Structure formats: structure tokens, C-alpha cells
Amino acid sequence: MERHLEGDPEQADFLLDLSNIVREKSLGGADRGSLHRLRLVLDALRDLTGDREVTVHAIADDSLLNPAHDADFPDPAEPALLREWHERSLITAHATADPDLLDHAEALGTPVISSDNFKGHRGRHEWIQGNRDRFLKPERVGPSVRLVPRDMRFVADREVSSADEHDRLRAARLLDQRGRPRSDVLEHAWQCPVVGCTPKPALAGGKVVCQVHRTLLHDCGPRRPRVQLKITVDGVCRAWDNLTHDDAREFVLGRGHLDRIEERHLDEDRRRRISRRHLILVSRHGTLRVLDVSTALSSVRTRRPGGEPTPWEPLPHLNQLSAGQSREELLRAFGPDDEIEIVPGVLLSRSGQRWPGERHEGVRAKPPRRPRDGDDLTRVG
């Protein structure tokens, strides 16, 4: 196998998702890890290209080389060989392999061999969406393996957000043994002893620590559930914000929340069409509802994964309120699959993340002015 391993990504014919291949049980064997699967894939690559000297730049997760996982392999010589390859720079390893793998693929145009769908990375690497010629998937055929071109298809934005969150939780060891998020950690607020740090929690040695400073975090009690709202301009997410579920409060979204978006992404004409008070958002019993109070008149549609979006329809507006009717009756449900067109090309949608971080993690540019005690969208009144 070594003759096909190329440590320099610029010299390799293909990029290979090593952890994904070694751990892919559908390629044969019941063990969690097996180098026999890599051998089968390299054989298939020779058959596909007709080149007996074809090379791959193989990138692994650090966990694949960790002696703590040696028992995953049928023979202790296999993980030892992986570590030897790494020491000889025949393969590379990172805390998470995917970012490096996809950065090389984008920069060099080199095809990728993997069974991963890379859903969580499509926000940064939009070229993956619908791609049909840059990815190969290994498939078992009898005792051997063949490599087939992949149609990466288009993945809904909400699915991308959800997968990205899952990847980040896995990297922070915040998934349990069954791959489920550790709600006992994520549903609590945490304080870092380092002044000015708004921590991102992670687990290390069974303790909750700060991802940046690796210090033990103080449990500040339950954290109120949040919904993350995303603002996209011409199909690209340019800003996002968090809204806390609170039955006693209402929130307004308006022009100020788009101040953080640079002028080169949002032209002045569309910016002026967005009212200072454009949408009222109401959280009641964990359900999000919305009402248009703008002068521009916004629209809404539903885009379910795998299906065509529904036609745009006017969003209920405050000026439709009739005598004797309460404003509550006008509010429309704002579901996970809904998109609101604030003005043409500027959309508001709900992220697929269940545990969004603090607001400062999502502010990409200058934030709008907010009340001193405000931790979410600007409060009505």
C-alpha cells in the first residue's frame, strides 16, 4: 500500500478520507477499523485509472492514530503501521480531517474518495452542492471494491446547519456513545474563569472545560432554549442572531440587524427598503410566530427537504387587523422549513442548530446597537 501514499497533496492524484475508509464496515469485516478496506480501495483505484503507480494523499482524524483505539483493529500491527506512516509523513492527521481534505480539494481540484456526504461543510464549501465529478465512493462488489462517481445532490440549508452543529459537537466530545448530543451539558450555561471569555464547552476527562483555555467551567444553571435565525443575501448567509424562547416577550427584527452586513453584499437600495421595525417575532410555548409590520410588505414560503418550495405568499401584516380582532390572531407560524423574503433577495430562515452559541459567535461584522441587558433580538417596547 505504501507505494500509493503521497504525503504532499499537490503531488497526489487523489485525496482520500482515510478514517472514513478504514472505518467503513460496508467495505467488509465486522471490526470498527481495518486496513484491509484501504487495500481494497487502492486496488479499485488502480483498476479505475489503469495506473499501477496512482497516488493518494490520505488524511485521517487524530483519533485513528490514538493507541486508545487500537482494539478497534483485528491486528495490533495495523494501528502501529498507521502511526509509522504518519511518522514518515506518508499520511497526515488532524483533529478533524474534513476541513483540510476539502480545502485541498477546492484549491487543487483533486478528486476525493470518501463515503461522507460532508453536509456540515457545505456552508463554507458551496461547490460541493450538486457536484457530480469531484467525489468517488467505494462500493463492495463480491470480494472486491469498485469506485463510483457520486452525485452530491443539493442539501437544504437547514440540514447543512444541523450537520455542522453535529460535527462541532463531535469534535468537542459532546456526543454520547450512541451519537446523541449531551443535553446535560448543552442545556446549561457555563462560565469560564478567564475574564471576558464567553466559553464554548467541551468534555475532557469527564469534565466540562473551555474549548479555548481548557479551564474547568462553572455551571451557571439551565440555559433557556434558543432559536437561531439566519439572514441570507442572494443565497449566502451574511448574518445570524439568536432568539430565546420566552413566553413573556416579543421581539422585533429590522434594518439595524443588517448593519453588520457589508455594503458590498447588501446594496443601499435594498437596505433602505427594510423598515426599522420590519417583523415582529413571538415565541409562545416553544413555537415561533411572526407578523409583518413593515412598509415593504414581506412574503413567506415553505421549502421542505427534497421537495420544491411552495409559491410565495404575502406574510400577514398588521394593517390587516380588523375591529375587534386581536393581533395574536394575525400571527403566522414560522416553522423550521419556512423562508421569509424581507425584501427581494434578502431572506430570513431558521437554522437547523438546536444549541446555537452566544451571539458574538455569529456576528460577522459590526453589530447593531442593543439594550445593555439585551442578549437576543431587540425587545419590542
Describe the protein's architecture and organization.
The longest helix is centred in the N-terminal third of the chain and has 15 residues, at 35-49. Residues 359-381 have low confidence and may be disordered. This protein starts with 13 loop residues before the first strand and ends in a 31-residue tail after the last strand. The protein contains 8 helices and 20 strands. Strands 3-2-1-4-5-6 form a 6-stranded mixed beta sheet, sandwiched between helices. Strands 12-11-20-19-16-17 form a 6-stranded antiparallel beta sheet, with no helix packed on it. It is globular. The protein has 381 residues and is of the alpha+beta class. A hairpin with a 2-residue loop joins strand 14 and strand 15 (287-292).
Give helix and strand order, one letter per element, not per position.
EHHEHHEHEEEHHEEEEEEEHEEEEEEE
Q: Biggest sheet: strands, sense, closure? A: 6 strands, mixed
Which percent bin holds the helix content?
Answer: 10-25%
- Major β-sheet strand ordering: 3-2-1-4-5-6
Q: Which parts are unreliable, with pLDDT below 50 for 5 consecutive residues or more?
A: 359-381
Strand proportion, as a percent range, falls in 25-35%
Taking all Cα atoms into account, the compactness measure Rg is 24 Å
* Shape designation: globular
Q: Could you give the count of β-strands?
A: 20
Structural class: alpha+beta
Average pLDDT metric: 87
Number of contiguous helices: 8
N-C termini distance: 68 Å
Summarize the structure.
This protein has 381 residues and is an alpha+beta fold.
